Amino acid sequence: MSVKTILDLPKDVALLIFEAIVHDPGRLGGELRALSLVSHAMRRSVAPVLYRYRCLGSNRERTASRAVNNTDLDAFSRCSDLLRHAARHVRVKIYDRQREVDDYSQLFEFIASLQFLKELKYADESSRPAQAFLMVQQLLLALDRGCPELYRLKISFERLRVPSVEKNERASDLEIEKALQATASGIKNLTKLGLQWALDDSLFADQSAAQLACLITTSSETLRELDLKIDDWYGVEPDLQLLKNIRGLEVLCISSPLRGGEIYGEIADVAPGLRRLEVKLDSRRRPIAALPFASDPHYHVFGKFLKLQQLRISFDLEKSARDSLKKDHDLPWYIRCLKRRRIATQSLARICPHLEECYWIMYPADSEGNSMTHRFRIVTPPGSESGEGLGGSSADQRADRLVQTYKDEYMMPFFRNDWGNEEFPPDMIVHPDILHRWLDPKEAGEVAKPALGIRYW
Fold first, then answer.
1. Spatial CB neighbours of 181, under 8 Å, sequence gap ≥ 6
2. How confident is the model at residue 19 (pLDDT cuts 50, 70, 90)?
3. Which distant-in-sequence residues (6+ apart) come within 8 Å of 120 by Cβ?
4. DSSP state, 218?
5. Which among 17, 47, 106, 347 would be 20 to 30 A from 252, CA to CA?
């Protein structure tokens, strides 16, 4: 029997499974009871559907929905064979602040035994940095012994800091000593790596930096996507020169409060072959660009990215225009900021021959410090293509490329009276992912499929 979804099961079995999921989400007991009513052959065929996505973790002080508690270990032991053959995507969340590193060895060994695991997301919110660092070491060693099909790994520390006023959150001397003696390890053959390095590593900064570098370089021959987020005040920042060894890197996303506009030039020198680049800087360090943007020193840096298709950047264009934020929800000001970035996008389209989408992060957009994103799509009119790529081989041919503006919510007709005398740019389009926000889809205008077929980001 071929089973692709739960709906392919007999109605009575599907009903039991749905009830178990609704009343006891994320736990295995109800699902096991439902499976116990069917034959062994049926269980084997259903397992890949039920256990393809699984969330594991420790007790949490608040609600632990979709997290498997320690009381479920019996259920794990009873269905371990099913999980080992069926699990493809696993999330691990650590909340318990009182358990020791060795208490999780069984969990890590179990994860390493998942023969067909392809994606692992690991998050630690235990508020014990030294312990969290050691647990990642143990997890990496376990993964290195198993999980031959693992291709995507994401590790995130949720702002772990020391010291803490509570005794059970304070790092012990033994944990710190072990962290200082830790040896960096990594995993080979990863194609996607995500790291949220919000670890307060002031006591073992060298070891943390070495571990971060090892994670990035161990899969240098296969890595295609790297997503790196650094905490506001904690954590180390990797040397971008490490990216030189990752010759196949196509996607790079960096979020850092420690860097300024110089980061664009450093990335262009070490990874000029990127297809997608996303850089998010702290609002206090974002570079102030000259107007017109083509006269800004940072502008020519982007000409080094000969394969760049998608770009997400942050520049302050308002100070040069002497048009800073004066009040909240100032829609005419939003429109002026939008038009400045549209002109800048036209300049980028001339030096980035393959650029198809350009997103500008603007902050602050209000007195509370919230951000706003201006989104543009670049297309080549029919008949303008030539032999060398998307925009042709000459500057004249690239200048023919059309910049279209993705509509935002404040552009709905409902806000027409708040626009003032400002006019929107021509060639406005709507992203299909936000079409539902318009009460009348006919008022939205042209709906354009994203250039790269990705979601509204």
1. none
2. very low
3. 89, 90, 91, 92, 111, 143, 147, 150, 152, 153, 154
4. H
5. 347
